[in-house]
Amino acid sequence: GGPEAISHELTEIQLQLSHLTNPTDPQEILEYFECKRKVFFLEFYFTISHCIPETFLAKGNEKAFFAVSGSLTQTVTDVSDLPRRCLRSLLPHTRGDMYSNQ
Questions:
Q1: How far apart are CA 16 and CA 23, in angstroms?
Q2: What was the pLDDT predicted at 95?
Q3: Which of 2, 49, 59, 93 has the greatest count of CB atoms below 10 A from its CB?
């Protein structure tokens, strides 16, 4: 954490952006950040839904394991739009409108 971590992250982003096919194209930059956002949520989902419950189980705290196992996955689903985007792309356009505010 802290300012050093933020500085490192920004430097890394600048480096990655400079390696894009056309680093001044707004659409390509947008696609990069959308991809980065998806990766963040996948990493977050994995940590929340697997690592935390497994840590409780490894420490022998079954009560905490069962308490967090289901609720954490739902929490991640609520904050991420990844599952909704996938569903929206599968639905016909007439039914997909109900997801437009998400």
A1: 9
A2: 39
A3: 49
| Rg, the chain, Cα only | 18
One-letter amino acid identity for 7? S
At 100, list the tokens.
């437009």
The answer to whether 56 touches 69, Cβ cutoff 8 Å, is no
Q: How many angstroms separate the CA atoms of 98 and 40, rounded?
A: 26
Which two tokens mark 56?
A: 């409780």
Q: Which of 72, 76, 75, 77 is nearest to 87 (CA)?
A: 77
pTM for the structure as a whole: 0.57
pLDDT value at position 73?
58
Q: Determine the 3-state secondary structure of 92 from DSSP.
A: coil
The closest of 51, 53, 48, 54 to 80, measured between CA atoms, is 48
